[in-house]
Amino acid sequence: MADEISTAMAACQGKTVLLRLRNNKTIQGSLIDFDIHMNLTLDAAEDITEEKHLNLGKVLLRGDNILAISLPTDKS
Q: Is residue 55 classed as helix, strand or coil in its secondary structure?
């Protein structure tokens, strides 16, 4: 199972992912890197929780704060 998740995440590097956090925030950004603890580095991250989006730039999110990750679908 861990290998499948790691493979799916690796395939999404450089693509935009959508995250739901424990504090009810929704973040989207380009996935730069991740580790086995699901700590994520995002570039061009935005907080899209409110109607007005807040640009965050490059961020590191600790894995235990992430509730859900929406990965892009491959349309090829």
A: strand
HSE on the CB side for 9, CA within 13 Å? Answer: 21
Q: Look up the pTM and report it.
A: 0.89
Contact between 19 and 63 under an 8 Å Cβ cutoff? The reply is no
Q: Which residues are paired to 6 by β-bridges?
A: none
pLDDT for 5 equals 87
Helix (H, G, I), strand (E, B) or coil at 48: coil
- What are 68's two structure tokens? 């859900």
What pLDDT score does 2 carry?
Answer: 72
30: which 2 tokens? 């380009």
**CA separation for the pair 18, 45 (Å, rounded):** 10
Q: Are 51 and 59 in contact (CB under 8 A)?
A: no
DSSP 26-37: EEEEEEEEE-TT
Neighbours of 75 (CB within 10 A): 4
